[in-house]
Amino acid sequence: MKTIIEPFRIKVVEPIRMTTRQEREQALREAGFNVFLLKAEDVLIDLLTDSGTGAMSSEQWAGMMRGDESYAGARSFFRFQQRLRDITGFEHILPTHQGRASERILFEIVGGPGKVVPNNNHFDTTRANVEHSGAEAVDLVIDEGKDPKSRHPFKGNLDPKKLDALFKDVGAHRIPVVMVTVTNNSGGGQPVSLQNLRDVRALCDRYDTPMFLDACRFAENAFFIKKREPGQGDRSVSAIVRDMFDLAHGATISAKKDGIVNIGGVLLFRDEELNRQARNLLILTEGFPTYGGLAGRDLEAMAQGFEEVLHEDYLTYRIRSVEYLGEKLLERGIQIVEPPGGHAIYIDAASFCPHIPPGQFPGQALVCALFRHAGIRTVEIGSVMFGRGDRPADMELVRLAIPRRVYTQSHIDYVLEAIVEVYAERDRIRGVRIVDEPPALRHFTARFEEL
Predict the structure, then answer these.
(1) The CATH number of domain 21-50+311-450, selected from 3.50.50.60, 3.40.30.10, 3.90.1150.10, 3.40.50.450
(2) pLDDT < 70: residue spans in the chain
(3) pTM, whole model, 2 decimals?
(4) Which of 32, 103, 316, 328 is the most exposed, fewest CB within 10 Å of its CB?
């Protein structure tokens, strides 16, 4: 069939409050031109993130009613644990309240001053947790991953030659782990090939260094492997997922993405000593190891969500829905990171607003313009998020992250129409400057003013 329908029926709806341009203008100014600081009720279409914003299924809600809220040894934990073991093959599985908690625990153990942590591209919280430990975060994505127009099928790949050079330059003793983010969020939601994971693992073995996955979107990455990588087309997504995890020594997962839940995370280890250290930190800061800062009902929802995300009719709908928006924007001359990613469309803000230099944050300016015009909340992935002093980010992007099972095609068509209208008047978009910022993760709480 040419039309890819949503493989579900809508059972519960939430009304959207329609706003006027004047109301949005006032809200934007009160938020200091930072859409993170808006009230959610003032947003018509919320594409800020796909993290924890998806709609849970009837089976997930049923599981929440079955949640065992015992402090220790709850049956909900054992159901969650078994589901993750079946999917990943890992023996040591720790629940956390979300992905950044898994990152904090991992890098508190393996990070520290003088250490260097390579990745294809670190995302914001991963980089922040690496740097908070005193270590240095280094991005080694392939060159095609920095070119929005490149149609390389696996632009998220970590460059093995760059990784080998880093090992030789700083010494393996300074690299505690090699991280690979699947899919590569900061690089446009681009996938990583199975062959690339094998190549990176081979290098890690040569230098006796563990390879970890940032596996927030492992199922979406596996679906791309099935569709794009030679020799993988006849295999199941579940089998490809298992291959990905079999190559890793450990993983951090935000279940708020491919777990299709509103809260939750996972930390995986093969090494028993690392697991012991992480378990002790988990008890100190998150909770007992059989709940990890979560309620039993959350563990039930995670267990069911990790099963549903591997359903291939769901993944077909999911990837095609995002691709639909990207293709329509390209048809109208609006440059995005090509090809469309798995969870989001990334508009090339530098080409959208060529009159705004990096120092005036074209991505943030476009984010404000989209909200002002149509009530659409997006997020800047550029020099606000990743710039350092006078050094801009590699790309100036605006991410439209599509929540799972939330919006219909008419919502996406509204988004498309709004972007096209803003593009027609793009010369009127003004740059911004920062008037107040925190010392880390400034994009969350910084305040701006228009120039």
Answers:
(1) 3.90.1150.10
(2) 1
(3) 0.94
(4) 316
